[in-house]
Amino acid sequence: MVGAENLKRIVDQICRDKGIDRALLIDAIEEAVRSAVRKKYGTRREIEVQFNEDLGEVEVFQYRTVVDEVYDEETEISLEEARRLDPEIELDDDLGEKMDNIADLGRIAAQSAKQVIIHRMRDAERDVIYEMFRDREGTIVNGIVQRFERGDMIINLGRTDAVLPREGQIPKRSYKQGDRIRAYLQEVRRDTREGKFRDSQLILSRTCNEFLIKLFEMEVPEIAEGIVKIMGASREPGFRAKIAVSSIESDVDPVGACVGLKGSRVQNVVQELQGERIDIVPWSPDPARYVCNALAPAEVSMVIVEDERKALLVVVPDDQLSLAIGRQGQNVRLASRLLGWKIDVKSQSRYANMDNTEYRSLLAVDGVDENLADRLFAAGITSAPLLAAMDIEQLMALARIDQDKAQGMQKAAAAMQPSKEKTAQPAPDVQELTDQEPVTPQEDQSIEQGG
To answer: Which fold would CATH assign to domain 7-130?
Structure first.
């Protein structure tokens, strides 16, 4: 007999506390005892293990074949001995005999049984957690910060813990143990043996676009009712976000619905995201109108749409360029992600220069980008031949490069022109701009889709 008088009570308590199916737990105990018996007596014996509900104990039976002469005591039993146990037994019958000498299975066997039970209980508990949370994947859950592990947060959700990875945390906000937190349940996993977060079935995020969308769904009744639809979102968590909305009813303003009375609705979302600035953008099926809305508050003069490349050339007044691009390109980068199109923002003066053949010849020189071409053009260096002939020191100052790069640039410019043309050009009268701000000191405004 294996077990104790309290085994049945222990089984009931574990099932109640852990939510594990009773049949699964009993099966795990039977398998553990079977493993322990085989560990002690070997694998040649035919063993059957059963949990006796009435006695509250595990019973082990050994089956042997009835023979005239015994050659293997582990698998055979004599007819004489068998008939003492069962008078009606015949030769070649299989006789089951309860093993009463296994109360002490030994330390190694007991340890093996313990490991089997733990393993099976973990599997059963994982199944319980999976079934409990699989329908909640893609929703917002509430929890309490339990502890920190190598930058990841372990969040207690009541019945189990979830992990909020470092990359899923908003950088501006720091939490401490015991704080309440809301997050998006990004993934519910059945198998935890593979992947980055082993032993973690529930993966959370506060930085994904879906978290922002779900917060608005919770705050705005019109979204929950389906009157206002969220058409897209893009975020730089903790700093800035854009969300595009539309309405299926003409008399409902989607932007106003999301903003709320005196900004109350959007402010609730902003507070949850620790001050993340949120731009609510009216969606449009026309990409030209859509990009104008997405780049607001910057004014847009012209939009050129290239459908095949899914690219937009946006021209803005010179004084609106910085506003359209945003700090470190953030505004146009978020707009590009929101639309799913490549967006190239140019000022009106630069766009006008693009029609100039000489300006384009400057851009064709290896090492000359649009910013440098603007500075050269403003300084009177209006073509590649003039660039090749200009003073090396002035080129170094304008381009902010060393002598080797400046010489390489001039060599590339000279190689673009016929030899006669190179020698015929007089040295240009360069305007001194080294102490002035460049005409358009913007970084590269070509933002690839996905940023």
So the answer is: N Utilization Substance Protein A; Chain:P; domain 4 (3.30.1480)
